[in-house]
Amino acid sequence: MDFESNETQQLLKSTAATVAEKYGPEYWRERERTHDYPDEFYQELANAGFLGMLIPQEYGGEGMSMLDTCIGIEALAANGVGPAASWFMVLTPIFGGISVERQGTEEQKEKYLPEIASGDIAFSLGLTEPGAGTNTLNLETTAERDGDEFVINGQKTWITNADRSDAIVLLTRTTPLSEVDSRTEGLTFFIVDLPVDGIEVSPIPKVGFNYTNSCDVFIDGLRVHEDDVLGEVDNGWRDIADTILTERIAHTAGAVGSGELALKTATEYANEREVFDQPIGSHQGIQFPLAKLKARLETARILNHKAAWQYETDREYIAAANMAKYVGMDSAFSAADQAMQTHGGVGYSEEYDVERWWRELRLLRIAPVSQQMALNYVGQHVLDLPRSY
Fold first, then answer.
1. 281-288 long-range Cβ contacts below 8 angstroms, 24+ apart
2. Residue-wise pLDDT tens digits, 69-119
3. Cα separation of 47 and 349, whole Å?
4. Which member of 70, 82, 343, 353 has the lowest number of beta carbons within 10 Å of its beta carbon?
5. How distant, in Å, are the alpha carbons of 66, 132, 137, 284 from that of 128?
6. For strand 142-146 and strand 123-126, is the pairing parallel, antiparallel, or unpaired?
């Protein structure tokens, strides 16, 4: 294996660093405080080609690989953007872009992909429900056929960006559980343009990422045409695989980059802050935890790059994606936590940003997919242990 970055990847890193210099910690600190959406940053991502990285060139994108995307996200995060890097690279480029590029009709691709790449459209993913979080197959949102239309009723929760999306990808049950042989059957995706009669959105107060809203989505008598089916009717569980698994890869890249940002911030402080006439970084109690986390983040990066490479070369990538997600999220959150500890009391203040990274990275141990579910996959499908849930 060649671990050297190629010319394209070196340019990606340089471009990401330039973007991050304009939208560094101070920018996100202010957006978090005011709860303002970062429109300027989002358009900058589009102008620099990041939003279209995974979109084929014939639809206005860059036609780049998942590995390239990971490298770009890591560099954005590590150079100052932090967890917001993967946050915005997932919401539309993956929830919309991957879903449409992999499962869409030619008409859907021509309609949505160029606007995703240009930053002129925003997507959200309607997957999670109040009674079906990790257990997606328990979803209760239904879509019943009525001629050439479907009538959708139900509720989604924690749907980030739903309040300002131009389209939402909705997972529904089109065939009742009682009528299918397997719980994975009978699910269907739809693309729904927003705003639309039949959908109401209500933001949920939350701990972090407050420059975007995560919302309850209430669906009542929503009518959609059969042309709005994304993928195949009743085959949604298989269709969703690439979307939710590439989400894990992208968020792991963001976590690794954010962990590096937290370590850099902690290291700089440990070199500058003196106690008893010497830098606190000279003490092993400060130095060793940071060094251990550097090793853990590097391990997560390599494993995540492996998952991205396996994905783009049509190899089995699910195991690597889950293991990288587990190691990456734990390591990144621990890096933010140790950065806060290294800073001592000032680490608890907003001024030094580590408390915000700490809050944001804590979420990534819950979603996308909990740490426990990632371990369930490894236990059952890698170690061949009995199903544990």
1. 286/342
2. 999 999 999 999 999 999 999 999 999 999 999 999 999 999 999 999 999
3. 34
4. 343
5. 25, 6, 10, 44
6. unpaired
DSSP 88-118: HHHHTIIIIIIHHHHH--HHHHHHHHHHHHH
- The Cα–Cα gap between 343 and 121 comes to 40
Map out the domains of the chain with their CATH numbers.
Answer: 7-118 (1.10.540.10), 128-234 (2.40.110.10), 239-382 (1.20.140.10)
pLDDT at 389: 86
Rounded Cα gap, residues 55 and 97, in angstroms: 7
Query: Per-residue pLDDT averaged across 352-378, rounded?
Result: 96
Can you tell me the distance from the alpha carbon of 253 to that of 377, in angstroms, rounded to the nearest whole number?
20
What b/e readout covers 67-106, taking b as 16+ CB neighbours within 10 angstroms?
bbbbbbbbbbbbbbbbbbbbbbbbbbbbbbbbbbbbbbee
Measure the CA–CA gap between 280 and 290, rounded to whole angstroms: 12
CA distance 37 to 214: 12
Angstrom CA distances, 206 to 1, 32, 124, 306, 363, stand at 42, 11, 18, 33, 10
Q: How would you classify the pairing of strands 229-230 and 123-126?
A: unpaired
pLDDT, averaged across the chain: 96
CA dist 184 to 59, 174, 180, 234, 245, Å?
Answer: 32, 12, 9, 9, 16
CA gap 31, 38 in Å, rounded: 7
Partners of 278 in the β-ladder: 275
